[in-house]
């Protein structure tokens, strides 16, 4: 059974929407996500330190919105692949507990045995990786899917998926054809 | 640079001593660690549920004693190998924060990028693994060192190390010879 490593932030969780919401609450400005395109994560905002403040504040990770379609597709993947949730959570120690609670609430079918919180993802041994960060995909040895986010739209090195529907098309349809 | 995955509980942290201390505090009995030999972790005590209670109680992981010699040897390994600390912490969510604080206190030279908290360790890609549990070593693909603990003394499938001095002899001497 092929093993998939699935990222949380920006893939299962809609981090960009959450940034926009926090930013609007702080500054009263509704930023157009299109204006963030191509900038490194958080640096597309006028206040380039804002997102860093948000992700280090209690509650940010616990209240992240679920990425549309992710629950259904991760569930389907879970039945056909060895799914591991791999999050680079170690940089933000406060996030560990919140991320685990978030997973238990929104993806209760995922066993604790399939959850990995790490710093560098270079240690991950899997066949497929779904991630929104070039820094994680770059050192990975298997099939790479880049999940679209404003900060990665200029990267053309990997198979791009713009939504969970496209993940399903890439990884579940094939599976059916093979089976 | 070869990569080593080093376990925390029973390897960097002296879990057995901590069990014995908690048990003595609860029951007033100083258990001889020799009587635990060969039993599964925690099951060598008359009260077989005791250790499970201890590891799910706040503070247990934060106050673990450091395994003698581990600080010096892990430091030396850190300079010569790509060291990752890999702990199967996900079963006990309370332990995540405590384990990170414990690492920061006793092994401050270890970068957050080199810390992995997981459930199953099957996802770990490394060249060498030091662990006290057969269940972790069994599925590992590289060189395996079993760090002696009462619950593994009957296992003869891996290179055994009885102390951090023996880890140094196995992994640092060779390195010097090779270099």
TrEMBL record, chains A, B:
Domain of life according to the entry: Bacteria
Molecular functions (GO terms): 5'-nucleotidase activity
InterPro entries, per database record: 5'(3')-deoxyribonucleotidase (IPR010708), HAD-like_sf (IPR036412), HAD_sf (IPR023214)
TM helices/strands, residue ranges: none
Active site: 7, 9
An example Gene Ontology biological process: pyrimidine deoxyribonucleotide catabolic process
Pfam families associated with the record: NT5C
Similarity comment text for this entry: Belongs to the 5'(3')-deoxyribonucleotidase family.
The name this protein goes by in its record: 5'(3')-deoxyribonucleotidase
Organism: Chitinophaga solisilvae
């Amino acid at each position: 059974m092929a093993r998939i490593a699935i990222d949380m932030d920006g893939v299962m969780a809609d981090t960009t929407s959450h940034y926009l919401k926090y930013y609007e609450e702080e500054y009263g400005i509704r930023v157009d996500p299109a204006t963030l395109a191509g900038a490194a994560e958080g640096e597309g905002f006028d206040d380039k330190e804002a997102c860093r403040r948000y992700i280090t504040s209690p509650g940010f990770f616990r209240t992240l919105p679920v990425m549309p379609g992710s629950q259904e597709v991760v569930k389907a993947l879970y039945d056909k692949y060895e799914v591991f949730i791999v999050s680079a959570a170690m940089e933000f120690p406060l996030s560990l507990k919140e991320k685990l609670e978030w997973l238990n609430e929104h993806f209760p079918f995922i066993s604790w045995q399939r959850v990995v919180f790490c710093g560098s993802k270079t240690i991950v041994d899997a066949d497929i990786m779904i991630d929104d960060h070039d820094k994680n995909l770059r050192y990975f040895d298997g099939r790479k899917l880049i999940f679209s986010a404003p900060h990665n739209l200029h990267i053309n090195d990997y198979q791009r998926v713009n939504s969970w529907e496209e993940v399903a098309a890439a990884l579940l349809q094939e599976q059916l054809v093979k089976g």
